Amino acid sequence: MKKLKTLIICLLVGISWGGFAQERAGRGNFQNLSAEERAKSTVERLTKELSLEKAQQDSIYKISLEQANLDKAAFESANGDREKIRSVMQTNRATYNTKLKKFLTAEQQKKYDKLEKERSSRGPR
To answer: Taking the domains of the chain in order of start, what are their residue ranges?
Structure first.
């Protein structure tokens, strides 16, 4: 009976560790995606959160793809200098937000601003 209890406890601990590992694996992999996959993921997320129309999705995909390529270039050119990467990406993000808002309605812009505020309040990952 004691061996059975020990076996059950070991199984439960193993299952919970496996679940935690899978949860962590889903985060932070955005950098490992190709520029096209990142843009597609961004458009899907924004479509869900902002109820984008097809024309908006196409336009936002183009600027998201451009943004993903700029981010990738920033990582490659910075040679590990985190401050340089951060500075370049902040500038790129501001430009991206300006371009993105041109394709959004006033209501969508308010929702987007709220989402960005929540995103920035989470701090670094």
So the answer is: 32-120
